[in-house]
Amino acid sequence: MSASTAPAPAPASPPGSTLLGHARYVVAENPVTGLAFGMAILLVVAALFGQWIAPYDPLASDTAAALQGPSAAHWFGTDQLGRDILSRVLVATSLDLRIAVFSVALVFALGGLAGLAAGYFGGWVDMVVGRLADVIMAFPLFVLAMGIVAALGNTVTNIVIATAIINFPLYARIARAETRQRAEAGFVEAARLCGHGNLSILLTQLLPNIMPIMVVQMSLTMGYAILNAAGLSFIGLGVRPPTPEWGIMVAEGASFIVSGEWWIALFPGLALMFAVFCFNLLGDGLRDVIDPRKRT
Amino acid sequence: MSETLPLLDVAELSRQFTVRGTTGGLLARLRGGAAAAPKLHAVDDVSFTIGRGETVGLVGESGCGKSTLVRVLTRLLDPTSGSIRLGSQDLTHLPARRFARRPERARIQMVFQDAGESVNPRYTAFDAIADPLRRLRRLRGAALRSRVETVATQCGLPLALLPRFPHQLSGGQRARVGIARAIAVEPELLVLDEPTAALDVSVQVVVLHLLARLKQELGMSYLFVSHDLNVVRLLCDRVLVMYLGRIVEEGPAGAVFANPRHPYTRALVEAIPQIGAEGAPERIRLGGEPRSPIDPDPNVCRFYGRCPRGFARCAEQMPPLHEVGPRHRAACHLVEGG
Amino acid sequence: MSERPPRADPAVPPQLTPAGGPAADLAVEPGEAPPLDTAPTPPGTAPNLLDSLPPGPIPPAAAFSAAQAEPCLAVRDLAVSFRTRGGTVKALEQVGFTVGRGEIVALVGESGSGKSVTAYALMGILDAAGEVTAGTAQFGGTDLLHAPERTLRGIRGRDISMIFQNPRTALNPIRPVGKQIADVLIRHGGAGRREAPAAAIEMLRRVRITDPERRARAYPYEMSGGMCQRVMIAIALACRPKLLIADEPTTGIDVTTQAVIMDLLTGLARESGVSALVITHDLALASEYCDRVVVMHAGHVVEDAPVRDLFAHPRHPYTARLLAATPTGHASLADLASIPGSLPDLRRPDLPACRYIGRCDRALDSCQVSLQRREIAPSHLVACNNPL
């Protein structure tokens, strides 16, 4: 008991009664969250409209203009084939975000639901999911991802799958822990009295309650997934040149740093950093927005 | 009792849990077989009945097995042995898993201790009350809305509060939501698991009056689980006292409180703080800890060791329930022969 | 008592000690409340904690009577507010009461009455949104509300100890309970490392834990809730505090265990002359174990009286209603009366002078604007313009 829990009938908090109103409040309280939302919007715009915003064709080479530093004509400079780096960075956003979104969606479906079931049923389900997660965790994760892509073939789909698999233990464990905490809660028993079977309890009672934490996790892993995809491309697995992708671009530019052409690697690297940073901040912000109990 | 069938008839009900992990690992279990695993006797050989329109109180300390008993009765758990009959229907052999989706589910409902915790935090009050109606009565649309509003009104919940989430309601309002949800499907037996434990006294009074009124209006039977004996005394017709999984005393509420016959019941009654009780005669105080409920000796009284009046025979023979008055029974060697 | 700072703590600015207060000319110096301490023990020779503790030898008569003139704790005009999104909550206003030497006082109220906030304010552990906006709390010459953190740290756990509602969370889960008691004895009680474990076992025996030698090695999770609460009591009393604050010490504990715990708590406090402030929502509990009851409602003290007076003749309408709503000894459910109305929204800028006005059937027009606080009978205070 404390005075901060409002007396008698908790008044419907006027500014925070809707999700949007609450989001506005959170942003106002914590400007960093607002910044993260702004950054995320920039990324999405770049992903959706990059092709049209880009000043040049990202694939068109112009040997006459090769290896030029940043200038008014080419803000981010040009690479060894004379391609405009700004255009390539913009267009690459779409591919990198897509890889991240799909892999996160996939790992949520696999790991999240497996963890949910493990946490609720316990027993052998829990054991199987737990051991599977342990097996995956036993490998150095990036090496595992490399192995999966190498074995399955060098495609974007396989990058998505590999990224999902290495994130499986994390999702399964978080979902399991969160579910376990609530599986004994009164509202689960109450649901059973209301005529819910096991499957219905999992999907209509427990899943919505662990969603906030999972959404936060998804945002945090988005950054990691992008980094992972770029890393795979960097070492030559996954996306193949000349497709614009941040990881490849950094890899291609790396050899030119020694000779002084730093911009080739720097700008895609910055884009990568921007995206990872954005999703991490966003994750922290979402945690505050989504938790209904914080709305008082 | 003899003229009509009681609403609920529980006979020789037991529920045990296998204790894992503490002693012996997989190897020991393999070697000794399943029988060697220690068992926690949460509910042990419990029999009682609840008549139509009757309010029966169930009291006991935490860990005495009353929660398990309630969960077996409401068919959230399966009994290990014994039988549960509701009216003319035997519920014993319906596994809890399947029972959840049968229409009989509506006949026994429960009000939970902490209404804040027993309502899904992502449900509004409306959704919470509508949930059993959707699933067990298959109500939809206007019929659903009108039934929810009827029940909410019956429970004194203003309709304006229906779109609110549990955390936007006060404790008393949450309690009303919990009660409304339970009576929405018109159960015959309502199990109340410490429904007022989390409430302030001024709110508790209102909820108790509400429960008394609903019972009159709807003709339900109540099983009222509580540790607050003052409340049990006021609300209940009959009382069951549980200690370590067994019923040690049962009888009319007035008789049990005025003249408790089992030493445990006496200690329980005398431990209730009373206003203006200074200078009361010396009371029994229970020292020590209860015996372990894991594989208890079937021939030793469960209260032995903590009982201020225990003697040699208590360690040799488990006392059965003796008749000590009209419909009043106590399980103690000291009351043998009435 | 090698670790004890000298009488007048240099960290206390002089203006904070009661200048010219009622106690100023007494033999007892500010910063010191001597009833239990006799002579200071020279460092090195470990004080025998146990000898001076149990069957409380009443300290020298002179010191004791001098001490009695000054209460152990005197709270005056305490006001606390919390900043929240919906506005500032005036959680406490003009809260005042005293705890006499060796007295056991109950602070009773429903949730939202401010009883726990009062305790937290006194202990200096209000959460960050809360702020003490007015008032003093004199404790042996120190104003608990304004003393610097360093001084408070010296007082907390040694001169004032606290027992919380949930003992299991208040104990360190990964340290045996005997060691936890010993830690306190070493830190605050001046015990040496070698004798502390034995003293800890003795403390466990005093809180009537059977087989204390074995239990001292147990971890909190191996003990029941009642047992953990006894350990908490042992810790709280280990270094003979002057004041014990117990916040809902038996909530969530079975009624049979509650009786044992309360017997123990009040019995030990009385026998060692410790003053106690017991915070509870249970009037019946307060009536049975305490000397005086302070009733709170919506951040105000509405009534303050000796137990017998309060229950025989409640003078504030709220106290009377609360008594009627507490189920003890009523003949039937119908006799149990509820309290109509609800608590006022404490964020309103225009709160009425009496915060009970919305629930009161004896309210006068004057209750909107002013509230009389008076001593209606000897040591029976009531804050009501139209008392019963």
Automatic annotation (TrEMBL), chain A:
Gene Ontology, cellular component aspect: plasma membrane
Subcellular location: Cell membrane
InterPro entries the UniProt entry points to: BP-dependent_transpt_permease (IPR050366), MetI-like (IPR000515), MetI-like_sf (IPR035906), OppC_N (IPR025966)
Key words, A-Z: Cell membrane, Membrane, Peptide transport, Protein transport, Transmembrane, Transmembrane helix, Transport
Spans through the membrane: 32-54, 99-121, 128-149, 155-172, 220-239, 262-283
Domain ABC transmembrane type-1: 93-283
Similarity comment: Belongs to the binding-protein-dependent transport system permease family.
Name this protein carries in UniProt: ABC transporter permease
UniProtKB/TrEMBL annotation, chain B:
Membrane topology: Peripheral membrane protein
InterPro entries: AAA+_ATPase, ABC_transp_ATP-bind, ABC_transporter-like_ATP-bd, ABC_transporter-like_CS, Oligopep_ABC_C, P-loop_NTPase
Residue ranges annotated for the ABC transporter domain, each copy included: 28-269
A GO biological process held by the record: peptide transport
Location relative to the cell: Cell inner membrane
Primary residence: membrane
Superkingdom of origin: Bacteria
Pfam families the UniProt entry points to: ABC_tran, oligo_HPY
GO cellular component: plasma membrane
Entry GO MF terms: ATP binding; ATP hydrolysis activity
Transport recorded as keyword: yes
Keyword entries, A-Z: ATP-binding, Nucleotide-binding, Transport
Keyword Transport: yes
Family: Belongs to the ABC transporter superfamily.
Name the UniProt record assigns to this protein: ABC transporter ATP-binding protein
Species of the source: Roseomonas acroporae
From TrEMBL, chain C:
One Pfam family cited in the UniProt record for this chain: oligo_HPY
Membrane topology, record value: Peripheral membrane protein
Keywords attached to this entry: ATP-binding, Cell membrane, Membrane, Nucleotide-binding, Transport
Keyword Transport: yes
Region Disordered: start-end pairs: 1-57
Source organism, top-level taxon: Bacteria
Gene Ontology CC entries for this record: plasma membrane
GO MF terms, alphabetically ordered: ATP binding; ATP hydrolysis activity
Cross-referenced SUPFAM superfamilies: P-loop containing nucleoside triphosphate hydrolases
Protein name per UniProt: ABC transporter ATP-binding protein
UniProt source species: Roseomonas acroporae
